[in-house]
Amino acid sequence: MPVRQLLDRFAGSAVTMTVYGSEPDPDFVDRLESQRIAVDWQALPAPDSESFVVVRQAGQFAGAVRLDVLRGFLSESPLQRRARTLPDPDEDVQLLLSSLTNTVLPSLERGSLLATAHEFEDRAYRIGRGTLRVSFQSLSTFRAQVDRYRTLAADTELDIHIYGRDDWDPPAIPGVTVHTISDDEFARLWLLAFDGNGNATDKCALVAEETDSGQYRGFWTYDPPAVDEILASVATSF
Amino acid sequence: MDRHHNQEATVTNNRLTAQRLDTLLDVLSSEPRRMVVAYLREHGSASVDELTDVVVGWSQARGERVADDTWEQTRTVLYHNHLPALAAVDLVAYDVDEQTVEIAPLSSATTELLSTVQELEHTLTDSAN
Questions:
Q1: How many domains are there within chain A?
Q2: Chain B contact for A20, CB < 8 A?
């Protein structure tokens, strides 16, 4: 499946991080290294709250994020956001996502992907037009998101397509088309792609594959050709 | 290298002259410069790229809005403005060829001033949180 090949294509990107903090944190370094990220620590003469992480991709500066934001994002149970209703953009998470774009992380928790999906849904909400395709693996997984998607569809003119194995009957929502999938390979993928209503700078996509351990190997991208490829692959698979 | 007269040498009896105090307070009235000095006091030396990472990341951690092109801009301003300014008052030594910066030998009076400034900065950020 082409979408899956995308995961392999992006898997080679070399990401290094430097943690600038008041105290070394070996547990967190282990966690980053389990994502195959090379980590370095430098002492920062500042309070803990000012610790930050600089991300480099192939040696180039890719972004800086607050340490507590990255730690929360990659933790086993990422902090639930204060609001689940749209719109609720989180600028810290946006900075984090742009720093780690096009990087396949091999052991992501569900919560990290959910936080990513929420930022992308929020972007689609703000643009208000265009096509959003989301594969939830199983339609029963969509159940917890129904209210959110009801708002997304009601407040915008988005053309929303939901995909998943047929294990639950979602309610009919105007603007949302539900597709059932039977392809086992595809059912392992958690996928979200937004076409930015044709505007290259607004496109975004998330692709993740569930691993045997229940975690996800995945990446996200703002790269227009990659997003178009993901959208085309989903649209033509069904 | 034809160094100008080292201003740290004018610190006599471990006291800052009024003129030297004016000079130091003036040059330190800029947050990126204070970050550079604090970081170099911790590490001794650093490359210009590393100092750029520190100023960009630290500013962001303090809640300042950061634009996409900030890294290049920050590096340019460090290179052409902040680092020469700190070198001109002998707080740092700046090796343009190697693109590295190191903390200069400082009098104890200057060290005390820098420590006080750093503590004040921590107090400010703590109370802002």
A1: 1
A2: yes
